[in-house]
Design goal:
With 329 residues, the protein is of the alpha/beta class. The protein has a single domain (5-211, 273-301), classed as NADP-dependent oxidoreductase domain (TIM Barrel). It has ten helices and eleven strands. The strands form three sheets. A seven-stranded parallel sheet has the order 3-4-5-8-9-10-11, with helices on one face. Strands 1-2 form a two-stranded antiparallel ribbon. A two-stranded antiparallel sheet has the order 6-7. A hairpin with a 5-residue loop joins strand 1 (5-8) and strand 2 (14-17). Helix 1 crosses helix 2, helix 3 crosses helix 4 and helix 7 packs antiparallel against helix 10. The radius of gyration is 19 Å and the shape is globular. GO terms for molecular function: oxidoreductase activity.
């Protein structure tokens, strides 16, 4: 079981593994954190050729970067390490808003480098767009990090079309990280045409619909899991039941392909283009191995049409976030 590579970006290209690994859930949000499981999963990912690792300073907060840094001790070479700044949090976990000021860009990068125990970050994203700071100022400060050798490639997360254009005019943007899955397809209308025009790669997060598309979730998430809160409407009550019915349709199609529902969902994302590199997250080696095997699931035009019919774009019930105010339009 090994995995191939894809290239993100045209003007500032970065070659990464075809699938990445989202590390967030190892430290926070989706149930109980599992540091040891996280370390084992990262090491197994590297063994399988999954060398594109994704974290952020706010995960934990701060503990996920430290975990990834520990996992990479003695194994940094050949890894494409991505992290993010902009969602400010206190050590106590308090959310302190979004900050895209040049001063914060510089301070956040230095802090991430220290926590990760590395001398450079391969792909540095603005996690959320700060509406109070011109994007030119934020990306200008990020560009200075490239010039200083602290960062090699720049990215944006959840940025709208006009913001992407303005940012790319300051410094080439290598990748846009945004939610994209069979359950979330709104970027296809306006954002996807822009990033492809500009030669920017796409890094879909939550390509498994925060676990819904794996087919393993049969009831509402347990207390203490962030998906059990109103912040994730798709997991609540009648919305969840309607969405699980869509998952059942995916299960039937997956069975006909000899795949799991999650593998079929990941194969669908991978089939959207060679400039697309999803980063499914997990803290378990078994799920990692299942995800990696999705790269070998080949979908025909008929398969893709069947999935479109099984999960129409407007069939999913509930917004992806209960509060969409931080998503740049």
């Amino acid at each position: 079981m090994t995995i191939q590579t894809r290239t993100l970006g045209r003007d500032a290209s970065l070659t990464v593994s075809t699938l990445g690994l989202g590390c967030m859930g190892m430290s926070e949000f989706y149930g109980t954190p599992d540091e040891q499981g996280g370390l084992e999963t990262i090491h197994r990912a590297l063994d399988l050729g999954v060398t594109f690792l994704d974290t952020a300073d706010m995960y934990g907060p701060f503990t996920n970067e430290r975990l990834v840094g520990r996992a990479l001790q003695g194994r940094r070479d050949g890894v494409q390490l991505a992290t993010k700044f902009g969602n400010k949090r206190g050590e106590d976990g308090a959310r302190l808003g979004i900050d895209g000021s040049p001063e914060y860009v510089r301070a956040a990068c230095d802090a991430s480098l220290q926590r990760l125990s590395v001398d450079h970050i391969d792909l540095y994203y603005q996690h959320r767009v700060d509406q109070s700071v011109p994007i030119e100022e934020t990306v200008g400060a990020m560009k200075e990090l490239v010039e200083a050798g602290k960062v090699t490639h720049l990215g944006l997360s959840e940025a709208g079309p006009e913001t992407i254009r303005r940012a790319h005019a300051v410094h080439p943007i290598t990748a846009l990280q945004t939610e994209w899955s069979l359950f979330t397809r709104d970027l296809e209308d306006e954002i996807l045409p822009v990033v492809r025009e500009l030669g920017i790669g796409v890094v879909p997060y939550s390509p498994l619909g925060r676990g819904l598309l794996t087919g393993t979730m049969l009831s509402e998430p347990a207390e203490g899991d962030s998906r059990a809160t109103a912040y994730f409407p798709r997991f609540q009550g009648e919305a969840l039941q309607a969405n699980l019915e869509l998952v059942r349709r995916i299960k039937d199609l997956a069975a006909s392909k000899g795949a799991t529902p999650g593998q079929l969902a990941l194969a669908w994302v991978l089939a959207q283009g060679d400039d697309v590199v999803p980063i499914p997250g997990t803290k378990r080696v078994s799920y990692l191995e299942e995800n990696v095997a999705a790269a070998d699931v080949e979908l025909t035009a008929d398969d893709l049409e069947a999935l479109d019919q099984a999960v129409p774009r407007d069939a999913v019930v509930g917004d992806r976030y209960g509060d969409m105010s931080s998503i740049d339009a």
